[in-house]
Task: inverse folding
């Protein structure tokens, strides 16, 4: 079986349509960010999360009313897979002087639950309490992790390819991060540690894809010295198309399995990665390629045509295999 | 080169497989836990030596900092180290397998206890200050003399305890808990000023000097009044005021006892060398017996010797435990604490914390995470299920698309999974729920290297090259892309590891190990399979790919 064996689509020719699509997603994302903002999990904001299982099926609304009556206002109650599993989140009012003492907040939640549901009619399956200080530190760490990994990848690509390729790949990656944030906001997903992990993995995955195409571009620049840059780009994308279809296919199937069977904790991860596979594929073709073309046009330096094509480590590697 | 010949390649693969299986082979492990009777017990279980994270096993994760809201630490750096040592000892005594107790940064302690059945109890043990003191109750009546001055200060500040506020003060819940006796206590004591709320216990026939009774309903109010700086200033310097740990019933009324104690303790818990929970042969209730070190014993002997006939309060975390007993004779190195209506387990926990020593400054929990064991087991099932389904889909795609070469890739995938899990066991990594998801996802991504190679081989074959040459060229040309893409993934994983906490760290580790394993299996193992294949059928002119 072979898909797209001798494909010859004019990918680059469609780029204006592609810009319109990505522009629309980003615009929608900006509107969503402006109206909804991003919802951070309590790991980042501080607060209390209690996951309970009740002995009888219950209605989330009834639990909310019960908690309200106990004076615990503004708690978020979410059904978690069944009518007996619920997650209750209480975000902290950060003005409280001793808010870093999570025990008081936790005790307040369990008291309210006892009052609303009756002690013994539910079982605590998991519990989390985070002070605002810890949450703030984590927020900062997450931001730095994304920033540094971005930078490290740029450095690696600059060393391994050439700065033009590195820059184009980084622009594509930035695009992926932005559209993913837009996706998270539009879907009203919660930004948790697991979701940040998914964003970082998505970055790695999307870069893979870009690198595979760039690797081909580098090779083809060498092989077809007379061709237009645009044609080389199209040729490379077409040549790597079967690989893209296959790899995205297997990655998406495992992600599907995780989303369906992996449970509530893993589902956000699977969904963000799922979207990431699409945006990553898209950006490798329509962002990385055209940006590389634009850079090539603007700064066509003497060594632009695939200089530094075969660096030393590459030559060595196959012998070991 | 050594790995060029087929025989040597098979030896390398054999060694890798043997190492992976060895590191995953179920082995016995001794678990030391404290049984319900308080005795340490070793149980031996046989299981696969893969560490499971708290989210898979159930357990608690705590982040603690010094709580300086009540007591300011003079040297936070030293105190946090001291607290760390004390926590280590306590958790050791508590008996948890492989606990994590470490300092994070300058001012935080992280405690991770896996498989703890009663998290509330574990938290209490971690947090209890366990500061033990012995003080003689005050005989001079210094508080009696200070009370009128307190009344005056409060009256001039407009803070008199006025009668009209009283009945509404206790909430519905406290009323419910205290029943009728509390209500009666409220109404009788609901007169005027602080001096009338703090009544000497002698007036109801107590023989203990320095003991005062406050109606339970008025206790929170009196406590907050005594904390007012204007009032606290009036407490005579030679005494300290401490509340009793439990209310006291006198006739039908319930009182919170308040004690005026000498400001210098006879000794503190730092002289303690041993503590044990026992059953009092006289009352059948639990007691904690303790033993002091030599110097502490001498000091205690002198102190008690000089105070025969006086009453001695035993304070734990600034609360007087039980009613102070009278000192009948000189006490040296051994003594006991009577606990009243506590359970044997509480007595054991007290003995445990006393023995491990007091915390220099109380600790507060700034972050906690608690997962029930059933939820953890559930997560494992879900992870395995999604892994099986995901793998089945990948096998379907690979074999459907690449036929016999697809089978080669699937076999390599089998090695991949074995190597990944084996190496995780080898480096002692902790498997978390996101980590399991990482393994499942990496199954889908690991075949990428095979896909790249196969596509290259197909291209070479399409150019009319022989099977043997196509395979050689295919591997060679695919290497660039494989190496580059894997390095970038490892880079992002490294940053993920650096920033993440427990579960996400686990994900970064499985991702990294997965990439290394996939390089070995997809490139080295697959190549070897092709070599065997070509060896068997040297005349092969078409390749099933």
Result:
């Amino acid at each position: 079986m072979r898909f797209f064996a001798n494909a010859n689509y004019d990918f680059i020719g469609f780029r204006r349509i592609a810009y319109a699509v990505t522009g629309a997603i980003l615009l929608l994302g900006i509107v969503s960010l402006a109206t909804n903002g991003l919802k951070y999990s309590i790991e980042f904001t501080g607060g209390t999360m209690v996951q309970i299982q009740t002995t009888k099926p219950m209605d989330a609304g009834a639990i909310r009313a019960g908690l309200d009556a106990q004076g615990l206002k503004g708690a978020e109650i979410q059904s978690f897979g069944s009518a007996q599993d619920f997650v209750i989140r209480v975000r902290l009012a950060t003005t409280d002087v001793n808010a870093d003492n999570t025990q008081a907040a936790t005790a307040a939640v369990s008291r309210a639950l006892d009052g609303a549901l009756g002690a013994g009619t539910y079982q605590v399956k998991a519990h989390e309490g985070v002070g605002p200080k810890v949450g703030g530190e984590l927020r900062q760490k997450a931001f730095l992790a994304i920033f540094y990994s971005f930078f490290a990848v740029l450095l690696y690509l600059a060393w391994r390819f050439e700065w033009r390729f590195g820059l184009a790949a980084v622009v594509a990656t930035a695009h992926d991060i932005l559209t993913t944030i837009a996706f998270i906001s539009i879907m009203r997903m919660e930004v948790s540690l697991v979701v940040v992990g998914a964003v970082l993995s998505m970055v790695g995955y999307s870069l893979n894809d870009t690198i595979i195409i760039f690797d081909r571009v580098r090779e083809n620049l060498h092989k077809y010295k007379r061709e237009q840059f645009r044609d080389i780009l199209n040729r490379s994308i077409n040549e790597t198309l079967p690989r893209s279809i296959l790899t995205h296919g297997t990655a998406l199937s495992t992600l599907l399995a995780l989303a369906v069977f992996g449970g509530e904790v893993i589902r956000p991860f699977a969904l963000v990665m799922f979207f990431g596979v699409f945006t990553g594929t898209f950006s490798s073709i329509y962002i990385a390629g055209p940006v590389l073309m634009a850079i090539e046009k603007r700064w066509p330096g003497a060594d632009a045509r695939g200089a530094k094509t075969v660096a030393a480590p590459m030559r060595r590697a196959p012998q070991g295999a | 080169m050594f790995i060029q010949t087929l025989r040597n390649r098979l030896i390398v693969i054999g060694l890798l497989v043997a190492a992976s299986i060895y590191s995953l082979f179920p082995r016995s492990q001794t678990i030391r836990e404290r049984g319900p009777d308080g005795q340490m017990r070793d149980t031996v279980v046989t299981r696969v030596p893969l560490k499971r994270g708290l989210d898979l096993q159930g357990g608690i994760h705590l982040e603690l900092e010094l709580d300086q809201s009540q007591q300011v630490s003079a040297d936070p750096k030293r105190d946090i180290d001291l607290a760390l040592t004390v926590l280590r000892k306590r958790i050791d005594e508590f008996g948890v397998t492989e606990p994590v107790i470490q300092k994070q940064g300058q001012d935080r302690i992280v405690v991770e206890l896996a498989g703890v059945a009663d998290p509330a109890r574990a938290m209490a043990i971690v947090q209890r200050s366990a500061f033990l003191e012995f003080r003689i109750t005050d005989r001079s009546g210094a508080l009696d003399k200070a009370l009128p001055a307190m009344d005056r200060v409060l009256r001039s500040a407009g803070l008199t305890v006025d009668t009209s506020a009283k009945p509404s003060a206790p909430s519905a819940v406290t009323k419910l808990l205290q029943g009728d006796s509390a209500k009666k206590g409220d109404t009788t004591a609901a007169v005027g000023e602080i001096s009338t709320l703090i009544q000497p216990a002698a007036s109801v026939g107590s023989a203990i000097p320095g003991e005062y009774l406050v109606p339970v309903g008025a206790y929170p109010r009196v406590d907050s009044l005594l904390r007012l700086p204007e009032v606290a200033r009036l407490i005579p310097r030679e005494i300290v005021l401490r509340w009793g740990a439990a209310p006291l019933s006198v006739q039908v009324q319930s009182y919170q006892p308040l004690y005026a104690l000498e400001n210098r303790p006879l000794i503190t818990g730092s002289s303690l060398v041993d503590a044990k929970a026992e059953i009092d042969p006289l009352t059948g209730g639990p007691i904690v017996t303790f033993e002091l070190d030599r110097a502490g014993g001498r000091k205690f002997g002198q102190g008690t010797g000089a105070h025969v006939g006086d009453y001695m309060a035993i304070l734990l975390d600034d609360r007087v435990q039980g009613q102070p007993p009278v000192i009948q004779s000189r006490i040296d190195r051994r003594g006991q604490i009577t606990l009243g209506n506590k359970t044997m387990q509480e007595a054991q926990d007290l003995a445990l914390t006393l023995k491990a020593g007091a915390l220099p400054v109380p600790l507060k929990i700034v972050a906690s995470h608690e997962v029930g064991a059933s939820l953890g087991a559930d997560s494992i099932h879900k992870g395995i299920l999604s892994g099986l389904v995901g793998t089945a889909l990948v096998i379907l795609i690979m074999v459907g698309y690449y036929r016999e070469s697809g089978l080669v890739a699937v076999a390599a995938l089998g090695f991949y999974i074995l190597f990944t899990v084996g190496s995780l066991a080898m480096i002692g990594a902790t498997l978390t729920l996101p980590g399991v998801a990482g393994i499942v996802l990496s199954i889908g991504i690991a075949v990428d290297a095979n896909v790249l190679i196969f596509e290259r081989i197909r291209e070479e074959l399409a150019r009319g090259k022989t099977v043997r040459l196509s395979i050689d060229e295919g591997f060679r040309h695919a290497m660039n892309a494989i190496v580059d893409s894997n390095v970038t993934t490892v880079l992002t994983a490294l940053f993920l590891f650096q920033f993440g906490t427990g579960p996400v760290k686990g994900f970064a580790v499985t991702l990294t190990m997965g990439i290394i394993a996939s390089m070995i299996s997809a490139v080295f193992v697959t190549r070897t399979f092709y070599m065997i294949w070509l060896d068997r059928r040297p005349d092969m002119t078409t390749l099933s790919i």
In short: Chain B touches chain A through 84 residues (CB under 8 Å). The domain at 2-26+372-536 of chain B is CATH 1.20.1640.10 (Multidrug efflux transporter AcrB transmembrane fold). The first strand of chain B starts at residue 27 and ends at 34. Residues 162-191 of chain B have pLDDT under 50 and may be disordered.
